[in-house]
């Protein structure tokens, strides 16, 4: 099993698909990496030589921000917005949609499960 950027990538899959298991690398970046390393698209990870794996690892380390560094950078950007107190930061702080989506209906992913509103109790005579 090849280990690139701290992630064990699956050996049975094609290289492009396996590289997308790394946080911060999608299909397009994986294709660019394979093209730069002269690896054919249909090659599987188990068929890679140690030199090819080393080349891929070095290229990702020097050219791309992935995994922990990327997660840390994203968290710091959100924290910066929240500390500034700007509109986007306030939306992050409240756990509401940030990019202008409606919240009257929908937005359940950000707001969490719906909670029942308790109204006045009916008085019986």
Describe the protein's topology.
Elements: E1 2-4, E2 7-9, H1 15-19, H2 27-36, H3 50-63, H4 67-84, H5 87-94, H6 108-111
Antiparallel strand pairs: 1-2
Helix pairs in contact: 4-5
In short:
This protein is mainly alpha-helical and 125 residues long.
| N/C terminus separation | 75 Å
Reported for the largest beta sheet, the result is:
2 strands, antiparallel
- Tell me what portion of residues adopts beta-strand conformation: under 5%
Instruction: Please trace the helix and strand order, writing H or E for each element.
Output: EEHHHHHH
> Mean pLDDT, nearest integer?
91
Low-confidence stretches: none
C-alpha-based Rg, rounded? 23 Å
Query: Could you give the order of strands across the largest sheet?
Result: 1-2
Q: How many beta-strand segments?
A: 2
Proportion of helical residues: 40-55%
Could you describe the 3D structure shown?
The protein has helices at 15-19, 27-36, 50-63, 67-84, 87-94, 108-111; strands at 2-4, 7-9. By secondary structure, the chain is mainly alpha-helical. Helix 4 (67-84) crosses helix 5. The protein is elongated, with a radius of gyration of 23 Å. The N and C termini lie far apart (75 Å).
Name the descriptors.
125 residues, mainly alpha, 6 helices, 47% helix
